[in-house]
Amino acid sequence: MLYCRLPMRIPAARRVCFPVSVRVGVMATAALSLFGALQFYNSETAAERQSQNRDPYMIGPQYERFSGLRQTVPENAILGYLTDAEPGSVLATTIFDAAQYALAPRLLQAGTTGEWVLGNFTKPLDFEGLGAKYGLHLERYFGSGVVLYRKQGR
Amino acid sequence: MLELLCILSATAIGAMLAYRFAGLRGFAPRWASALLIFGTGTAIGIGIASIIFFVCRILAPGFSVLPILVEIALAWWLGLEIYRTRDRAQVAAQTRTFAWSGALALALVLVLGIGTLGMSSFWEANPQGNWDAWAIWNLRARFLASGGNLASRAWSPVLTGTHPEYPLLVSGFIARCWSYSGSMSALAPMATSYAFFLALVAMGTGGLAALEGGSLGLLFGLAVGSCPVVLYEVPTQYSDIPLACYFAGALILMLLERPIAAGLLASLAAWTKDEGQLFVAAFLVLMAITRRRQFPRALAGMIPVGILLLVFKLFVARSNSSLLAQSTMGAGLWPRLTDLSRYLTVVRIATRQLWDMRSGWYHPILPPLILAFALKFKTNWRRDVLPAGTLTVVMLAGYFWVYIITPNNLYWQVQGSIARLTAQLWPLGLIAIFAGLRAPEQTGQEVVIEVPQTKAGRSGKRNQPGGKAASQPRGRK
Predict the structure, then answer these.
(1) CB-based contacts of A52: which residues, under 8 Å, 6+ apart?
(2) What phi and psi, each to the nearest 5 degrees, are found at residue B98?
(3) Do the strands B445-450 and B461-464 form a parallel or antiparallel pair, or are they unpaired?
(4) What is the DSSP letter of B377?
(5) How confident is the model at residue A3 (pLDDT cuts 50, 70, 90)?
(6) Between residues 238 and 297 of chain B, which touch chain A (CB distance below 8 Å)?
(7) Per-residue pLDDT tens for B290-314?
(8) What ipTM is given for this predicted complex?
(9) Among B23, B116, B123, B230, whose CB has the most other CB atoms within 10 angstroms?
(10) CA–CA distance, B38 with B14 (Å, rounded to integer)
(11) Which pLDDT does position B93 carry in this prediction?
(12) Which residues in chain A are contacts of B132 at CB distance < 8 A?
């Protein structure tokens, strides 16, 4: 079965006719694609997804959180790193990578061997006493668990 | 908004390169040529601008305007070249059009518009992108954009866990936009990812339109532009959509017999992500077997970026071993290879991923399936389907073996990456299928209609059915 495209203004003409199966297939593909795009739109704008998916790692607030440290420490610094998060946990990895992103081009190096050490804590603690255990002197506290330590005796 | 201008300038340089040297003019329909030049130009332009920025950062770290000067000189030279060789390209004769091509084009614009609206919702919620975006790609862009000797921190071995060995195309380009605009806003990585998506759709649509027929190209655009797994990856700001763009572009240009440009795109895939190096190897072997006469030109297209990649891997970032190197070294390789449960785990998760690609009851396999039944495969389908299908299968097999030998936790590795790998390879698979189909134009049959002069066009009577369907591909000039 053919479908013909009619050139109305021409009295005698060659017409191109397309099989019904082709027309149906093309129409179905176009309709399905539109539906697929709408499904994507609906899933992205769904309230549930919006609430679950909104900056799950809190990367946006890290700029504000580390802004004081960024102003204090020069860009070419390499900082040691001290945290209260359990080593190897998802939380520890997340806050380390997030701090690295917010502080780049300063480089973070796990461990407390460097002269300057970043303290990145998840809850209020005795930051001074904790640093002293590692031979670190609390140089400055920036709030929100962000501490700058310096190796004692330097 | 300055970041957008930076992206547009790279796209313009790429489009001029593609227009002048890639041999993409003259395909029918004309819009197929325009889309091919836009898509190829965007992919090449972003790649070349990224490389210029990276090389200048390495060679002259204190001279921050050098990459801008090089780009201006390149644009100037290309403008002169285009003016000097200006001519009207011969457009291949278009034998027949499909009645609904206009409606398909409108549907494609709608699909892209709706998809973009969905992405904007994600962008608004997560301007920094997903984990890998800020932990790997944009982090390294921050180092590269910092200037001086700090750029070398982008591949510092201290960055454990964030793949300092990865190639730098995406990071380098975002760093370029940040450096030129003087602002490290989230707009640059968002727009870069979106530009690659548009380039992917444009190259696929224009390429298949030039190869087989305009409406088949538009149908491909609809299929890839509505694929949920592809759409989800665009706003994440990962390197998988850029990689998918380079894979698809290289394949399309190979089918269109533009080996130099195809080789260049393949090499840019290798400079985007380590998976691109597997693609280059598979692409070269395929060219050597199926298109022997074009092989030297494809290789020539790969050489400049290939040299850069080798220098980066062997000298610049030599202290960082890749996942493949970590997987093949050490004593654990043999036990991993002989552990049957690993194979079952990969197959099980991959099968579930195939099912999870759907969004609601829409599954992206439906459009190609429906079209395969409706349009049927052309008689000489092997010529294009075999190389395209082989490339897709080889890539799938390569990813499968990387999963089997990975030293990381297998479940975590497969679960965390399989959707992204699907986004990389789905457009390749679609091209493999679409390249074998008859275009709707080719299914049409001509009939002569006689219409009485007095009532023109109102009472036509079909009196001579038949006429052979035009089945000549129009892509190759």
Answers:
(1) none
(2) -85, 140
(3) antiparallel
(4) B
(5) low
(6) none
(7) 999 999 999 999 999 999 999 999 9
(8) 0.88
(9) B230
(10) 8
(11) 65
(12) none
B445 close to A (CB below 8 A): yes
Q: Can you tell me the distance from the alpha carbon of B235 to that of A48, in angstroms, rounded to the nearest whole number? A: 18
Give the integer Cα–Cα distance in Å for B224 and B244: 11
Q: What is the pLDDT of residues B18-43, one digit of tens each?
A: 999 998 988 888 999 999 999 999 99
Report the residue from B374, B450, B456 with minimal CB separation from A25: B374
The answer to whether the peptide bond before residue B368 is cis (omega within 30 degrees of 0) is no
CA distance A51 to B428: 34
Residue B345's SS3 state is helix
The gap from C-alpha B326 to its chain's centroid, in whole angstroms, comes to 28
- Torsion angle defined by CA atoms of residues A128, A132, A133 and A135, in that order, rounded to the nearest 10 degrees: 140
Query: Residue B396 is encoded by which pair of tokens?
Result: 């799938």
Strands of B288-404, DSSP E? none
Q: Rounded to whole angstroms, how far apart are CA atoms B174 and B163?
A: 17
pLDDT of residue B180: 94
> Letter for the amino acid at A34?
L
Average pLDDT over residues B409-430: 93
B99-116 core/surface letters (b: 16 or more CB in 10 A; e: else): bbbeebbebbebbbebbb
- Give the model's pLDDT for residue A54: 81
Quote the mean pLDDT of chain A.
Answer: 86
Smallest Cα distance from B430 to chain A, Å: 14
Read off the amino acid at residue B103: A
Cα–Cα distances (Å) from A34 to A29, A43, B222, B375, in that order, read: 9, 14, 8, 20
Comparing B475 with B434, the larger pLDDT belongs to B434
Tokens 């038949």 belong to which residue? Answer: B466
The per-residue pLDDT for B456 is: 47
SS3 category, B365? coil
Please tell me the distance from the alpha carbon of residue B214 to that of residue B237, in angstroms, as a whole number: 31
- What does the pLDDT read at residue B476? 45
Chain B residues with CB under 8 Å of A26 CB are 98, 100, 104, 215, 219, 371, 374, 440
Where do the structural domains in chain A lie, given as residue ranges?
2-50, 60-151
Residue B454 pLDDT? 54
Question: Residue B341: which region, alpha, beta or left (left: phi > 0; alpha: psi -120 to 50)?
Answer: alpha
List the Cα angle B210/B114/B1 in 5-degree steps. Answer: 90
Beta carbons of B362 and A39 less than 8 Å apart: yes
Chain B residues touching residue A8 (CB < 8 angstroms): 456-458
The pLDDT tens digits for A68-117 are: 999 999 999 999 999 999 988 989 999 999 999 999 999 999 888 888 99
Strand residues in B372-457 grouped as ranges (E): 445-450
Q: What is the pLDDT of residue B420?
A: 94
Inter-chain CB proximity A55 and B226 less than 8 Å: no
CA atoms of B239 and B249, how far apart (whole Å): 15
DSSP tag of B314 = I
